[in-house]
What we know:
- The protein is mostly helical.
- The chain is built from 4 helices and no strands.
- The chain has a single domain, classed as Orthogonal Bundle (Arc Repressor Mutant, subunit A), CATH 1.10.10.60.
- It has helices at 3-13, 19-38, 43-50, 54-63.
- Helix 1 (3-13) packs antiparallel against helix 2 and helix 2 (19-38) crosses helix 3.
- It is elongated and about 40 Å long.
- The two termini are 26 Å apart.
- The mean pLDDT is 89.
Amino acid sequence: MDINHKIESSFINLExxxxxxxxxxxxxxxxxxxxxRKTHGNQILAARILGLNRNTIRxxxxxxxxxxxxxxx
Length: 73
């Protein structure tokens, strides 16, 4: 599902006041997962690609429930 479709469906399906938080969270997850795929799960390199601190990306990985095992070779 592309991001525009996801945003549109959020306006239909989410209760008011939660759309922004949900879209930002979903977008962050997509970006972090893409960076982790490119770096084969290397969190420090993924953080550099995204311009984040390594502790920030680790915190977001935990918060967004990203499965790190899926990025290991």
